[in-house]
Amino acid sequence: MSAGVVYGIDLGTTYSCVARVDRSGEPEVVPLSDGATTLPSVVLFVGPDDYVTGEPARRLARARADDVCALVKRRMGDGDWRFVSSGRAWSAPAVSSLILRALVSDVAFAAGESVRDVVITVPAYFGDEERCATVLAGQYAGLTVVDVINEPTAAALSYGFARFNADPPDTGPGGREEHEDVALVYDLGGGTFDVTVVELADRRVSVVAVDGDHQLGGADWDEKIALHLSRRVLDAHPDAEDPLDDSEAAQALLLAAEQAKRELSDRTRTTVRVEHDGHALTVPFSRDDLERLTAGLLERTVTLARSVLAAARARGVTRLDRALLVGGSSRMPAVARRLAAELGVPVELRDPDLAVAKGAALYGEKKAIERLVLADLVSRGQILDGAQPDTAAPEDLAAACRRLAEAFGLTAERVRRTVEVQVVNVVSRGFGVLALDRFGERSAVFLVHRNDRLPIAVRRSFGTVRDDQDVVTVHVVEQGGGVESTRVDDVKIIAQADITGIPPGFPAGTPIEITFRMGFDGILEVTALHEGLVDRPLTVRVETSAALSQADVARERDAVARLRRREG
Ligand code: AMP
C-alpha cells in the first residue's frame, strides 16, 4: 500500500526546489541531476521549439538577454504579459511550467522517481489570479496540483510548527492538548522581504497578517558594501575613476561584496581584493563594518516586522511564541540578534533556503494521508464522497486513522493529527463588485477584505439603476495595490457576467442581492439574485485566471507540450 507521494515544490523568483517526505517522515530536498538542491528559475529559449533551464540559462543571461526569461514569478497573474522569443510569445504560467518540467525531469533522472502530484508554494500576498496562474503552470507541466500553500506557512511547517510530522506529546489518559502557537516568519531573500504572522489555533494553521517590501533584499546589502569598497579605492587612489561608474568594474565590485558578506556570516573579519584602473587594493572588512553600513536596511525590516505584528494584534492575535528565519540573507548573524532583541522570543534559523520546499512536502504528505483516510471513510459509507474528514463520526474517523496507521507503521495519534490540523488561508486582497456611487460614478465596493479569515460568506444588496432594467452586469473586482481603493482604475476586473431576461415591471432600485463565498481553497463564488428571478440566481465561479481565456489555455498547453528541453 502506498500513500502516493505528493511532492512539495518551491517555485521561487530566483531559485526553485523539490522536496519529499522520506520513509522516516522527515522532509528532504530531492537533489537534481547536477547534484545541486536548487534550480535557477531561468529559461533560455534556444529557438521556436527548444529551451534550456537552470544554471546554463542563467550563465547565458547576459550574452542572450533577449532570449532569457528570469524573475517570471513577478509576472504571475498578469494576463497581458508575454515573453517573446524566436517569434513566439509565452505567458508567465507557460514559462513557469518549463521550470517545473525541468525540476520534475531532473528528479526522474537523479532519483528515478516520477513526480505527478504536487503542492506548489506561493507568496502569502498572491491574489486569486496569481494562485490560479500557479496552478495553471503545474497543469501545463503535466502535474496534478493537489494544492497551493503559502510560503510562510510552508516554512513554519518545516520548522515543526503545528508538529505536522511529529507525534503529539502524551497528555495522559483522555487528555487532548489544545496547542496554540504563533510564529513570525521573517523571509529575507536576494531581492525581496516578506514578513508574516502565522497562527496555530483550533487545529488550524493560518496566515494572520502579511507585510513586506519587494524591493528590499540581500542585493541591497551588496550595494552598500560595494559603495564602501569604491570609497576605499578612491581614498587610496584619488586619481582613479570611480569603479561604480564603470559597469564591468561595478559588477565585479558587487560580486566581491556579496562574497565578503557571505564570509562574514561565518567569521568576524575578512579581506576584499579590488583591482581597478591599473590599481590593486586589499581592503580589510569586518562584520562590525558590515553591520554598521547596513544597519539602516536591517531597521527597515524590523519596522515592517513591527507593522505586521500590529496588524496581527488588530486581528486579536496578541501572543508571539517564536520567530522563524527564511531566505539566504537571514543567515547574517545581525538578523537573528536584532530580531531577538526586538521581539523577546526565540529566533530559529534552520535550512533557510530549503525550508519552504520542505514544508510543502510535509503538507503534501498530509494531503496524501488525508486522501487515504477519506477514501477509507467513503468506501465504508461513513462520509459522502467529497466531504471533509471532520464530517465523519469521531469514532469512525479514529478507526480509519488506526487502520491507516497500521498499514503505514505510524501511530494512530499522528495520522489523526495530520488529518485534523487544517492549513487555511486568509484572503490576501479585497474582493468586491463595481457599483454606481451616490454621484452616479462607477466605483468599487468591497465585500471581502484583506486578511478576512476563510471560509467567508457575505451578502450585500445593491439596486438596479433604471425602471424596467432587463440586464444587470456584475463586475467582480480584486483589489489592485496594497490598499483597497474604490477607484475603478485601481482595481482589477476578474470576472464579468450578466443577469439577463429580467421581466419588465420592476422599478429602479430593485434589490440585487450579491453573495460572495470563498472556501478554504480561495476559490471565489459570486451569486447575484434579482427579485424578479428568484428561481434563477446568477452564479459566477472565479477559479481560472480571467486574464487567460480557455482557448488561450488550450493553445498554450499544446505549445508547451511540444517544446523540447536541451541540456545546456
Ligand atoms: P535566496 O533568494 O533565499 O536564495 O537568497 C539569496 C540571498 O541570500 C542573496 O542575497 C545572497 O547573497 C544571500 N545569502 C546567501 N547565503 C548567505 C550567507 N551565508 N550570508 C549572508 N547572505 C547570504
From TrEMBL:
Molecular function GO terms recorded: ATP binding; ATP-dependent protein folding chaperone
InterPro entries in UniProt: ATPase_NBD, Heat_shock_70_CS, HSP70_peptide-bd_sf, Hsp_70_fam
Entry keyword set: ATP-binding, Chaperone, Nucleotide-binding, Phosphoprotein, Stress response
Gene3D superfamilies given in the database record: 3.30.420.40, Actin, Chain A, domain 4, Substrate Binding Domain Of DNAk, Chain A, domain 1
Alphabetical list of SUPFAM superfamilies matching this protein: Actin-like ATPase domain, Heat shock protein 70kD (HSP70), peptide-binding domain
PANTHER family: HEAT SHOCK PROTEIN 70KDA
Family: Belongs to the heat shock protein 70 family.
Protein name per UniProt: Heat shock protein 70
Species name: Candidatus Protofrankia datiscae
